[in-house]
Design brief:
By secondary structure, this protein is an alpha/beta fold. The chain contains 7 helices and 5 strands, in the order βαβαααβαβαβα. The protein has one domain: Rossmann fold, CATH 3.40.50. Helix 6 links the parallel strand 4 and strand 5.
Length: 178
């Protein structure tokens, strides 16, 4: 069974995900059913900045795990935006990605082309799964680009599957001819 996509927008600016749901549906992408406050708490939890945010650890503990569970229960490709992840250290990025073990993670960074995407994240995901987009995109434009990225990933997955099937077919034909 193929892994589902988890399109993770790491900022640096926030986006209105609720306004993007209709456009994301074109690429068969859902947004996990969590409150925006939970996503903010997830960013605070992973970066361990609860004291700076004026929160206690117990208020943010388990927020990222809740997002990951809801994404897993959705049964579909997911899009999540957590802008606080942009400044994460490599250890924090690895911690966040541990919760996404059942997904194929694709990073979406809207830092524009002037700044490079954060190496803490790009070193943790496979090569070719980081997409840098302009920083001045509107919510609908970003949703269209995310849907396009999801369709490109699906096409690549199907091409790999077709290649495997073609190889198996050649082996079967050789055995039948022998």
């Amino acid at each position: 069974m193929a892994k589902r996509l988890f399109l993770l927008h790491i900022g640096p600016t926030s986006v209105d995900v609720t306004a993007m749901t209709d456009a994301l549906a074109l690429g068969r992408i859902v947004v996990p059913d969590v409150d925006p406050e939970v996503l903010v708490h997830a960013g605070v939890e992973i970066r361990r900045t609860h004291k700076a945010a004026g929160l206690k650890r117990k208020h943010v503990e388990g927020a990222w795990a809740k997002v990951c569970r809801r994404a897993d229960r959705s049964g579909s490709d997911c899009f999540v935006s957590v802008p606080d992840f942009f400044d994460a250290t490599p250890e924090q990025a690895a911690l966040a990605l541990d919760g996404l073990a059942g997904f194929r993670v694709v990073l979406v960074v809207t830092s524009g082309f002037a700044a490079a995407p954060p190496t803490a994240w790009t070193s943790q995901v496979k090569e070719g799964r980081t997409h840098v987009l302009p920083s001045d995109l509107g919510d609908d434009q970003l949703a269209a680009q995310v849907a396009r990225i999801a369709l490109i990933e699906e096409e690549a997955r199907l091409d790999r599957r077709l290649s495997k099937i073609s190889k198996r077919r050649r082996l079967v034909n050789r055995r039948l001819a022998a």
